[in-house]
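Operator note (shift B, R.M.): manual run for Glyoxalase-like domain-containing protein requested after the automated queue skipped it. Running by hand, logging everything below so the morning shift can see what happened. Input copied straight from the record, untouched. If output looks odd, do not overwrite the archive copy; leave it for review.
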Amino acid sequence: MPINTGTLDHLVHLTPPGTVEEASRQFEDRGFKVLPGGTHVGGLTANALVVLADGVYLELISFTYPASHYPIGSPEREQREKHPWAKKEPGWIDFAFLGNGSHTDSVAQTINERGRAEGSGVKYSPEEDGGRVRPDGQALKWLISAPAVAGRGVLPFFCGDVTPRGLRVPSEPPTNTEHPSTASGIAFVRILISSDSFEAIAGQLTSVVGKKPISSSSRDVIWDLDTVNANHLGSYARLILSVPGDEDEIAFIETSEGGTGIYEVGFYVKDGSKSGSETTPFGKISWVSR
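Run finished. Output pasted below as returned.
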């Protein structure tokens, strides 16, 4: 069976070191139910979760301490400084597609072969073990494969469960996915990129997703993404790659690591409940009626 490489798994929102609880309150103020997460293996980061009915979740993450907390030259300091998110500014910093949790049927190998055949140049690193411990002591394990040719946050990384996904994504009981904002799923993830990289990254994302865009122009390319519960909800998330169109977007590009990143995330909500856009303290969110 072909390996599906186009299922949106989760989005990562970073806040300053030691602020997971504060970030949780900030998202609660915007109408999201926030669940406790845990501490990742190695103790460098901790998180909380917002689980949506479409099966996608938000990972509200922060480093446990700033790099200066660890003695210079110590293994902990080296690990902290080499973390893929160590230099990221707070906000929407990354996103993950769902992997298959297998070293044998490798997602990375599948994408790399597709990239060679399509000439996109996309390349992913082999799967590596990852995990965290929940507050209740339950150990979670997964495999991670990250892009090897572009900065994290423009191409997705893959997270494939070794332990059951339900342990990592606590969608039961159903009340875990019920939010005061009525948010039920991801409408879109919009990435901004400079015009000189636009065509190349669009080709690489096509190789990653595994299907052609549903729309393409000189300013935007759009793909439909699967979600775990897309068929149940009757809607799909969209991935949008754009060049900046106004002063705010140009400023975002100029201050982002590598000149690119997730600028905006849209959430499906019930008609009449919310509209327009607002921000977390560090990132833009938009409400899409359905």
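Quick read of the result: The chain has a mean pLDDT of 92. The two ends are 34 Å apart (CA to CA).
Leaving this for review. - R.M.
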